[in-house]
Design goal:
Distance between the termini of chain A: 26 Å
Number of strands of chain A: 7
Strand content of chain A: 5-15%
Strand content of chain B: under 5%
CATH superfamily of chain A: P-loop containing nucleotide triphosphate hydrolases
Structural class of chain B: mainly alpha
Largest interface: A-B, 29 and 25 residues
Oligomer: heterodimer
CATH architecture of chain A: 3-Layer(aba) Sandwich
Distance between the termini of chain B: 24 Å
Shape of chain B: elongated
Number of domains of chain B: 1
CATH topology of chain A: Rossmann fold
Helix content of chain B: over 70%
Helix content of chain A: 25-40%
Radius of gyration of chain B: 18 Å
Number of strands of chain B: 0
Chain lengths: 193, 218
């Protein structure tokens, strides 16, 4: 991926769209600082690569980072220990209190996703990077997620959300297009003939 | 830091965690030695320190390959890497949890197994001391090797090949410390070298492991 430049406005979530394999997840991981990249990314006066960059953002990837041997409350308690914040309040955000004592391994895919997303409610971060957050969520949970994202943005936060579904959000859209086959494939250009 | 330590201990003790694996392996190997060598008590006494150390080293190796791999597979490693806790600190804590669930039980079991191998009475104190000083280094070096192989499926073989040469200095001075003491000689010089090796490893391994993990995160 190259030649990408955009500004995320605070107050309005941005949906990241594009065909499979175009690099939406890679972009999110690069913004999180997990994939090395060249270029400049800044939030206020903190730039990507700075020591406290990770403290500006919350990342929720494809994987929910849940340990099946631990209960729902223990999973959230561990993240609260790492990131700070109140695990009980985070449980409430995605209406997970009835599941608190259950082993995370016994939860359904949608419930696991809700546990993973509840992590966002723990520590206050400026930028949310969400990778397909609504996968496996039912309509009610999707609405809950949208409400939560809207509230985060209304409080001055930013959100970049890679998705293929229509989230019920008042959002801007950023579409990634694949590089054209002509420039991408040197064989078609005859470079090796 | 406490949260990560408690989580890792909890995971190790719950089903599928493998906390008892190293200890069970240690017991089985050491109990089998007298059957293999025969009831020659003088010979058993001579090989006891070395056998105990080799068995302890191999037992440490058993549970290493899942140290970071389990976290990498379910996405926890990303979350840990993005947390305010420095990755070096996380590596150290995970190595500590590995030591507490693998190394510590071995230290407790070793004197009992020393009796079955007819270890001379002078060797027990130094055997415990050498294991206490040496096994943390085994966990820390193991964490480094585990971080290099975190992206590989079935990386256990490569991990063993990487880590065994690194274990040799610890093994030599650890076993030497216990066997010299068992012969009634001064074990302090060997112990000091072992402790120095161990401290150096504990200081360097977390940085090496964190660097290796960062390059594997993508």
């Amino acid at each position: 991926m190259a030649g990408l430049s955009f500004v995320l406005a605070a107050g309005k979530p941005v949906l990241l769209r594009g065909p499979n394999g175009v690099g939406k997840s890679t972009l999110l991981r690069a913004l999180a600082g997990l994939v090395p990249c060249t270029g400049k990314v800044e939030i206020g006066n903190v730039a990507l690569g700075d020591e406290d960059w990770a403290e500006q953002l919350a990342y929720a990837g494809h994987l929910d980072a849940i340990k099946p041997q631990l209960s729902v409350a223990e999973n959230l308690g561990f993240w609260a220990g790492l990131y700070g914040g109140d695990a009980g309040a985070a449980l409430a955000v995605f209406e997970l209190e009835p599941l608190a004592g259950r082993l995370a391994g016994d939860c359904s895919a949608g419930q696991k996703r809700r546990i993973g997303l509840a992590r966002l409610a723990l520590a206050k971060r400026h930028l949310w990077l969400l990778d397909e957050p609504s996968t496996a969520l039912d309509a009610a949970a999707t609405a809950l997620l949208a409400k939560h994202i809207t509230a985060h943005c209304a409080a001055g936060g930013m959100a970049l959300i890679a998705t293929h579904t229509d989230l019920p959000l008042d959002a801007e859209t950023l579409t990634l297009a694949p590089p054209s086959a002509k420039t991408a494939d040197p064989f078609l250009e005859g470079a090796f003939v | 830091m406490r949260a990560l330590l408690l989580r890792d201990l909890r995971l190790a003790l719950r089903s599928g965690g493998g906390a008892g694996l190293g200890l069970a392996f240690f017991l089985i190997v050491v109990m089998l030695i007298p059957f293999g060598i025969g009831p020659d008590t003088a010979l058993l006494a001579r090989v006891a320190p070395g056998v105990l150390w080799v068995a302890a080293l191999l037992a440490c190796l058993l549970s290493l390959d899942r140290l970071f791999q389990a976290d990498a597979e379910d996405g926890s490693l990303d979350i840990i890497a993005l947390s305010p806790l420095p990755l070096e600190g996380a590596v150290l804590i995970k190595a500590l949890a590995h030591w507490m669930t693998t190394g510590l039980p071995l230290i407790v079991a070793a004197p009992v197994l020393g009796i079955t191998l007819n270890l001379p009475s002078g060797g027990y104190g130094w055997l415990i001391a050498s294991l206490a000083a040496g096994t943390p280094a085994l966990s820390a070096l193991g964490a480094f090797a585990a971080s290099l192989t975190v992206g590989l499926r079935r990386g256990g073989l490569l991990l063993s090949l990487l880590v065994l040469p690194l274990y040799i200095p610890t093994l030599i001075f650890g076993a030497r410390c216990a066997s010299v003491a068992a012969n009634g000689q001064d074990a302090l010089p060997a112990f000091l070298i072992l402790a120095g090796l161990s401290l150096g490893t504990l200081a360097l391994a977390p940085f090496a492991a964190a660097a290796a993990l960062r390059s594997q995160l993508r």
